[in-house]
Amino acid sequence: MSNNLLKGKRGIVFGALNDKSIAWKVAEKAVEQGATITLSNTPVAIRMGDTKALAEKLNTIIIPADATNVEDLKKVFEESMEALGGKIDFVLHSIGMSMNMRHNRSYDDLNYEFFDRTLNISAISFHKMIQIAKEMDAISEGGSVLALTHIAAQRTFTGYNDMADAKALLESIARSFGYVYGRDKGVRVNTISQSPTLTTAGQGIDGMNAFVDFAEKMSPLGNADAEECADYCIVMFSDLTRKVTMQNLFHDGGFSNMGLTQAVVDDYIEKK
Ligand code: NAI
C-alpha cells in the first residue's frame, strides 16, 4: 500500500544483494512510496548476486562501488544526481562484512588485516560516504542518511565477533556526523538497530538460528523481519521524522529492553 511518503524524493540504496537483503526490501518500498532511486553494490556482488534483476524491476540503474573506496563513492553520488535529476534526499548504508567470521577466526584469534577490513567495510565506509556527500553538497537540506546496526554494539553476543566492534564504531559515526551535518546543512544521520534476520550476512553469524529463536522468545512483539525493517527505514526517510537525528533506533520487537520473558523461562524448564 502506498501513502506516497517519499513522493518526489531521490535516494541511493547501498547493499541489495538478493531478495533476502534488507536493502532489497527498502529499495522496493521506497519506489512504491513514490521515490526515484539508484542502487549500488560491489562489482563482485553485482556479478554474483541478483541486484541486476532488482534494477530491472524498479527501472533504475546500478552504480558499482566498493564502499571503502572514496573515488567510487564520489562516482555513486555524481551519477545518481545526474540520473535522478538533482540532489539526493535519502541514503541507505546496508553494508557489512567480516573476513574473520568467514574464516571462523574467534575473537581471541583475530587476523588483524581482516579486522581492519571489517571496520573499513562495515563502519568507516559510512563516514566516507557521508564525508564525500557533504564535500559535494550532494544531499538536500532535511535529507536523511541511515545505516543498519545491531545491539551487539552495546552488549556482548557470542559469535558476533569483530562485527560488534564495527557496529559500535558505526553508531558513533552516526552521532558524530549527525552533529556536524545537522549543524552545517540540516541533514540527519541515524542508525536502526535491527532484530537478527536470516539474510546472507545474517547467516554468516555463528549460531544464528539459535539466536533468531532466542530473540524471538525474548521479544514481546517477536523479531522484526526485513520487510518491517524496510518500513521503518521509509518512515526515517520521510518528512514525518524531520527532527530525528544522531539516534540509534531499536527495531527489535522490544528485545533491547527485556531482561527475561516467560517464553524463555518455559523453554528453559522444558529442556532441563
Ligand atoms: P546482505 O548480505 O544481504 O547485505 C550485505 C551487503 O553488504 C551485500 O549486498 C554486500 O554485497 C555488501 N557489501 C559487502 N562488502 C561491501 C563493500 N566493500 N562495498 C559495498 N558493499 C559491500 O545482509 P543484510 O542482513 O541485509 O545486511 C545489511 C545490513 O544490515 C548490514 O549492515 C548488517 O550488519 C545489518 N544488520 C543485519 C542483521 C541481520 O541479522 N541480518 C541484524 C542487524 C543489522
TrEMBL record:
Pathway: Lipid metabolism; fatty acid biosynthesis. InterPro entries: Enoyl-ACP_Rdtase_NADH, NAD(P)-bd_dom_sf, SDR_fam. Its EC number is 1.3.1.9. Keywords: Fatty acid biosynthesis, Fatty acid metabolism, Lipid biosynthesis, Lipid metabolism, NAD, Oxidoreductase. GO terms for biological process: fatty acid biosynthetic process. GO terms for molecular function: enoyl-[acyl-carrier-protein] reductase (NADH) activity. This is Enoyl-[acyl-carrier-protein] reductase [NADH]. It comes from Dysgonomonas hofstadii.
